[in-house]
Design a protein that fits this description.
This protein has about 325 residues and is an alpha+beta fold. The chain folds into three domains: about 10-100, 2-Layer Sandwich (Phosphorylase Kinase, domain 1), CATH 3.30.200; about 105-280, Transferase(Phosphotransferase), domain 1, CATH 1.10.510; about 300-330, no CATH class. It has ten helices and eleven strands. Helix 3 (about 120-140) runs antiparallel to helix 4, helix 3 (about 120-140) runs antiparallel to helix 8 and helix 9 (about 300-305) packs across helix 10. The longest helix has 20 residues, at about 310-330.
């Protein structure tokens, strides 16, 4: 792996590195100052190529990066950071994007969990509506664009309440008959990744892969608990705990919509982001799916007899039996 950039280093004669602010699916992420536009801060997202690949494959991967960066630079949507530039620097490639201030939703989730609270469902659904706008825009491009790395830490809440979907490190352009080369380290975060996205092939990922990650993200935000990953659920279907079992304040409608989006097989998920949004916000009814869920812990027999409504019948029967035995003995 190549060394990280140093603070103060200037790339392309323009972007002065301020600090490394994260590690994305494609490599390091840097906060930089645009020396040509005074006061402007930007985010540099670095592509990490697999140096074990043959040189020809790496060259094809870089060509792919340039094609995809060109498409991203044309995008303009309020819930997406603007890609303003892209360039190569030695063996590395970079996307230059708007720097998005504010806290990511993972930070807000952890803060709520620390306080033993839940994020309000009304707030989470408002954020989901904005995310749906961004994904509808991406999926509606020609060819469609799949983000493939939706998760709470990639959703930034700006001070004005606007949600931004950041980090295009795993983006895939669904160009027909075009082979996508895996050029980055990693395939998303396991907790939010659908089964079809595992492995080195991207042949089976499409817009429904984003729908799964969208649902898994909402699951985490509403319950303060990460969902069981898709591989574990495939082997142990009961490992997915229903949302309302952890947060009773979540509406039945929201729970059903989220579980629909998290279906293991793509054909069982909502076919489009808009259909998922309609079910999530109550404009249509999500299907009732045969989701296998974790069973509640069995109650001890004493609890059953003392606390349940059936206790009255059980004790009445016992008393009658005792009276009957006493009468028999007296005779």
């Amino acid at each position: 792996m190549l060394p990280t950039l140093k603070n103060g280093e200037i790339l392309r004669g323009r972007y002065k590195i301020r600090e490394r602010v994260g590690q994305g699916g494609m490599g390091s992420i840097y906060l930089a100052e645009d020396t040509r536009l005074q006061g402007r801060q930007c985010a540099l997202k670095e592509v990490e190529y697999d140096r074990a690949l043959p040189e020809k494959i790496r060259d094809e991967a870089r060509d792919q990066f340039l094609r995809e960066a060109t498409i991203l630079a044309r995008l303009d949507h309020p819930n997406l950071p603007k890609v303003s530039d892209f360039f190569s620097n030695g063996p590395r490639d970079y996307l230059v994007m708007d720097y998005v201030p504010g806290s990511d939703l993972r930070t807000l989730l952890l803060e709520a969990r620390r306080k033993k609270n839940f994020l309000k469902e009304i707030d989470v659904l408002a954020w989901a509506d904005q995310l749906a706008n961004a994904l509808t825009f991406l999926h509606g491009q020609e060819p469609p664009i799949v983000h493939r790395d939706i998760k709470p830490s990639n959703l930034k809440l700006m001070p004005n309440g606007l949600i931004k979907l950041v980090d295009f490190g795993l983006v895939k352009i669904l160009a027909p008959e075009e082979v996508t080369i895996t050029i980055i380290q990693g395939q998303g975060t396991a907790l939010y990744t659908p089964l079809e996205q595992y492995g080195g092939s991207d042949a089976h990922t499409d817009i429904r892969s984003d729908i799964y990650s969208f649902g898994a993200t909402l699951y985490h935000l509403l319950t303060n608990e990460s969902p069981a990953d898709a591989r574990k659920r495939f082997l142990h279907p009961e490992s997915l705990v229903p949302l309302r079992q952890m947060n009773a304040a979540v509406s039945i409608r929201t729970e059903r919509a989220v579980l629909w989006a998290m279906s293991l097989h793509p054909d069982e998920r909502p076919p489009t982001i808009n259909e998922f949004r309609q079910a999530l916000l109550g404009y249509s009814e999500p299907p009732t799916l045969p989701i296998t869920v974790r069973r509640a812990r069995p109650q001890p027999v004493w609890d059953y007899l003392v606390h349940r409504p059936e206790a009255t019948l059980a004790w009445s029967g016992a008393v009658l039996l005792l009276i009957s035995l006493l009468v028999t003995l007296v005779r």
